[in-house]
Structures are given as C-alpha cells and as structure tokens.
From TrEMBL, chain A:
Pfam families: FAS1_DH_region. SUPFAM superfamilies: Thioesterase/thiol ester dehydrase-isomerase. Residues 37-108 form the FAS1-like dehydratase domain. This is Unannotated protein.
UniProtKB/TrEMBL annotation, chain B:
The lineage of its organism: unclassified sequences, metagenomes, ecological metagenomes. SUPFAM superfamilies: Thioesterase/thiol ester dehydrase-isomerase. This is Unannotated protein. It comes from freshwater metagenome. GO terms for cellular component: fatty acid synthase complex. One of its GO terms (molecular function) is fatty acid synthase activity. Residues 29-117 form the MaoC-like domain. GO terms for biological process: fatty acid biosynthetic process. Pfam families: MaoC_dehydratas (PF01575).
C-alpha cells in the first residue's frame, strides 16, 4: 500500500535528460513520420515513464510498480520538445484513493528545461487488488 | 469559424474524417524500442497469458500515440497540440500474425479564440479502447494545407 505521507511530495531527478534527434526520429518513425523537427505529442512519455518510476520507487513511497496498470494519461504541452532539450523531471503523487480494493494513484510529472516548464503529464495508475 | 483551406470549416460539430491504423506484433516491438517500454505483456504471448490477459496487448501509449498522429495529421504537425488526454478503457488485443484495426474519429466540440477542442473516439474490433479522449489545438500554429 502507498504510504499516505507520500501524497503531495515532489521528487526531482538529480540528472537532466538530453533529447536527441535520433530518439525523436525513432518515435516518429513508428508512427510513419519522417523529417520531423518537433517531437510527437506523446513523446515525453519516453522520459517521464522511466523517470517517475525511478523517482517514486523509494521504499518509503510504497508504490508496487510490478502490479500497475495504466488507467489514463494527460499531456499539457507548453511548447513541443525538440532535439537538444535538456529536461529535468520532477514527479508528484497528486492524488491517491482506494476503490474496490484497487489503489488508484495519480502521478504528475513536470519536465523543465532550466526554469521553463515544457511539458506536464498526469498518469493515473491502478494497482490491482 | 476559421477557414484554413481545409475541406470543411473549423466549427463546432465538424467531424474529422475517420482513419484506420493497423497494429501488428512488429509495430509493438518497434514501439517498445522507441518508447523504452519493454513490458513483456506487449511482446511475449506466454507471459501475457500467465498474468491473465487473453493474448499480447498493445501498449496503451501506442494507442494514444496513433490517436495523436490522427490529430497532428489534421493539424498539420505536432506543434499546435497543447493538450491531449485519454482513458485506457479496454486493451487492444494483438494475436500473432494478425493485423488489428485502430479506428479513430474526432468531432470538434468547441472553438474559442485560438483554441479548438476535439473529442476523439478510438475502437479496435468494434470495441472502444480509448475513451474520454480530448485534444486542445492552437489554430494560429496550425499550418494551412
């Protein structure tokens, strides 16, 4: 079970992630696109999925990542990601509830380039009973 | 009401023409590599069945990426997309050797200043797989066709 004290805490990554053109090309290529300059709208999941999992795997948080199902996802894109962006991820458990034995956790992850907020994402994750 | 030279005006109630994307195991592998999500439920049939799934299922985020492509093709690129959301209602089941459909359609629900709001529905094999899906697109950043 999630430690209720974790709700509202923000965990910020120690390192920045530098986006490369080949990563954007590979992601866009799966969607049948070539010669793209800006990343597709959902590209940031490539960064936030791994980063938030790492940031929220602290034993003190108590989130069981092995039993998670992705419930819903939202992106707020302040500007598109481009190659060369150096992004720092910070993740916050914004909401937590238990329904029918399932734990429902909303994780917000913000990607900043320096002080500029580039993308915010919200992932609702369900830990099945 | 804004005329960007598209076949239909951007106005409330306008429908974005339905498109079908095809998903197979090869696409799941390609998406796993491009996204970094190597969860075996998206590639390994025996593993997927061992955790109670009927077969290999597509990444929810692949479904969402393809729905994103539906929006960005309509908008003339990724730059105009300001918000995008959806709920993973049912999994897209991808049997070995099969190509399964992802059928996507959209309706413009609001036009306010620079903002166009779109509701999107995505089904596979006739079953809704992405629900509550919405996008917010900036008209001024759309490229004319």
């Amino acid at each position: 079970m999630l430690n209720p004290d974790s709700v509202g805490r923000t965990f910020t990554g120690a390192n920045v992630v530098t986006v490369t053109q080949s990563e954007i090309d590979a992601f866009a290529g799966v969607l049948g696109e070539s010669n793209v300059i800006v990343a597709p709208p959902t590209f940031s999941i490539r960064i936030t999925l791994a980063q938030s999992q790492q940031l929220l795997s602290d034993p003190d948080v108590g989130l069981d990542w092995s039993r998670l199902v992705h419930g819903d996802q939202k992106f707020q894109i302040h500007r598109p990601i481009v190659a060369g962006d150096t992004l720092r991820c910070s993740s916050t458990i914004e909401n937590y509830k238990v329904a029918a034995g399932n734990e429902i956790v909303t994780v917000r992850s913000d990607l900043h380039a320096g002080n500029e907020l580039v993308v915010s994402t919200w992932s609702t994750l369900v830990v099945r009973a | 009401m804004v005329n960007l030279g598209r076949a239909s005006m951007i106005e409330i109630g306008s429908v974005i023409e339905q498109r079908i994307f095809w998903i197979d195991r090869g696409l799941l592998k390609a998406y796993a590599d491009a996204s970094g999500d190597q969860n075996p439920i998206h590639q390994d049939e025996a593993f997927a069945k061992s955790v109670g799934l009927p077969d290999v299922i597509a990444h929810g985020m692949l479904t969402m990426a393809l729905v994103g492509k539906f929006i960005t093709d309509w908008a003339g690129g990724s730059a105009p997309v300001k918000e995008f959301s959806g709920r993973f209602v049912k999994p897209v089941i991808v049997p070995a050797g099969a190509k399964v459909d992802l059928t996507v359609s959209g309706t413009i629900t609001d036009v306010q200043g620079d903002d166009v709001r779109i509701d999107i529905v995505a089904t596979s094999a006739g079953i809704k797989v992405l629900g509550m899906s919405k996008a917010l697109v900036s008209i001024s950043q759309m490229s004319p066709l």
